[in-house]
Amino acid sequence: MIVRNATDNSKPLTSLNLSYYIEGQIEKTLHLKVTDASSAVETFEVAIGDSTYIEVPYTFLVEREFATGIINVEAWLTVDDTTLESNHITNQFFFIADDCTDSIIILNDTAKKVINYTNTKFFDFTLFNKASDVTIVLTDGDNEYMNYTYKNCEVGKVYSFYNTLEIESTADLIDAVVRVSTKDMTSEFAVVIDNTVKMSPTEGADFIVNPKIRNNSESKPN
Predict the structure, then answer these.
(1) Prediction pTM value
(2) Is 14 strand, coil or helix?
(3) Which percentage of the chain shows pLDDT scores above 90?
């Protein structure tokens, strides 16, 4: 079973009319978890049956008004009468007042988990209204693991952020937050850093280098 977002988030929305591509010829239910700008949560369950929506997406209208701000929508499928479920996908949509001139950032395809020492896509982002630098910070509250700035991001362009973390830690899992900021606003999401491979140096271990495979020389030892 697969669910993929088909809702156009290239511009702010005035109504939450959601669209999804749905695969899997089995009796299934679409689950939606909608979190508005005030952090109020509303959930929906829609019986899809064994139908698929591969070329023409399935649409679902959330019939309520939202305040100006970011709407987070999490979607996933479950197989009826079982505990099986698909991957969860999360998308952000922005409701915006006509007189708003702030540089607004929208995050999409946010990662739930990233693996230490592995090149990973964290999220996509798009700016609305006004160009801006975009700063990305990864922190667990006590430690800042990453701080990166995109300069002069354009309005309407989709950017994909990838990064390879190199965190030296003995913990298997690290609960962290990705914080993304323009000059006018900040958006953030939780992420788990998977460090079960533990490729960081081991305290007290010996380090041996074979001089036959070194890539420097005595004249340039560094």
Answers:
(1) 0.58
(2) coil
(3) 62
